[in-house]
Amino acid sequence: MKDVVIVAREDGGTVVLTTKCSTSSHGASVLRINNIKDMAGDYGPADIIDSPTGLMAAEIVDAWVNHHRSKRTEEEITAATIFLRQWPEGPQV
Known about the structure:
The protein is of the alpha+beta class.
């Protein structure tokens, strides 16, 4: 899978769905956060990214894919769907 960029900040911080990591298995993607203070790392859908608020990786991907959904490509929607399916109890596309 090609990396799908969810956020690209001017300061270099990024949030992407990727399979290019050791924690990805069988083509399942992870949410990778780079260069964003206190949140950098690879996350599965049920992982809590921000412990004070309880924000989960699935919530970020769900909000992103459904915000302006008509502007999302088929590839972006598929990547989000595959990521979210890893956690059946969580939000789905």
